[in-house]
Design a protein that fits this description.
Elements: H1 20-47, H2 52-58, H3 60-96, E1 107-108, H4 112-137, E2 147-154, E3 160-171, H5 176-188, H6 190-198, E4 201-209, E5 215-222, E6 228-240, E7 252-259, E8 262-263, E9 274-290, E10 301-302, E11 310-324, H7 333-341, H8 345-361
Parallel strand pairs: 1-8, 6-9
Antiparallel strand pairs: 2-3, 3-11, 4-5, 5-6, 6-7, 7-9, 9-11, 10-11
Helix pairs in contact: 1-2, 5-8, 6-8
Amino acid sequence: MFSPSAAPPSPKPKKKRKATYVLRKEEQSALQQEIERLESQVAVLRGRSLPPEQAAQADPVLRRRQAENAALSSVLRHQQLHVANAQSLLSRCLGDQHTHPLYTRIRLSRDWPERRATLRAIRAEKLRNAYEYIMARSSHAQPEKMQLSDERFESAQGDLCCVRFEAVHFRGVESLEQVYNALIFYLTNMEISISERLGHITVRDDYDSIEGTAYNSRIASTEDCGVTTEMNAVSFPQLFGKDELGLGIGPCAVMASDCVDEDELYPYNPAERVRKDVSGAVLLTTSRRKVKHKGGKRIGTAAVAGEEETELVVTMRRAAFVKLHRPQFPVSPFALQELHEGIARWGDVMLKTIRSVVYTTS
């Protein structure tokens, strides 16, 4: 017997019938698809003996797809043209600039204590400007990707200018300090690296260091074309621990460099040399990433049971504003072209030197 409290079984819900117009619409869609399928099959059979272009034109489905692809390609092309137009405007803005965020006017006197006091006074500001500019310049970049941007233009005074930004990665290194020390090695041996890698006769006329916190050097280099360039530069390197630059900012290294505009002790020699000014910034940061290649000696690798092997990667982001002043003495068109083409080669030497030091000592 059933329990008096047992509820009667609920009736099954009635299946809702589709409206007639919905059924007809579905039938029409199915028939249309069948027609297209049959037409496509007929076109395939007819087009077996035709060239590919004519066979595609004989197939209505392919014709429609081609029309859609052409429309999408046209939209994409117009978007790319808008981007190219924006890049052209940006290049014009660069050419109209009379200064650069990394540049600061620097004047050094004859007195050695006063010269060093000047460098100490501007050091903190130069490091801050270098860090802020690099962070702003790379704010929308993909940190794991390599990047290179190189813009060159002629100023109203006839000087050749180069605005360069680059991001490179040193994979499998031991530490941030290892790459930083390689950077300092290049800084203190620049003339040797340039001579060895470019074959230019390069000498350091003067060199001053303030306990590794500030460097001032004057370098003259004779190019392959026979013209000598000169550079009077100051550099400020610094290794920062975690949170030293701000809360949440990891360990990093920054190097700011700039040109000396006026030096009472070592004035420029425009009658015989072409002046080269460099305002630059370098930022080194660290991250851990999956190991790309197996085998070989991997120094900075680590793995936890059940997890993929990772390696230490130091990313170097560097920016530079290079100005090659218009020669004040006769220079052949060939020599001038050689100077223009090699305006950024010292930066390439810097990267190759750091790589050589890092991966040779690992």
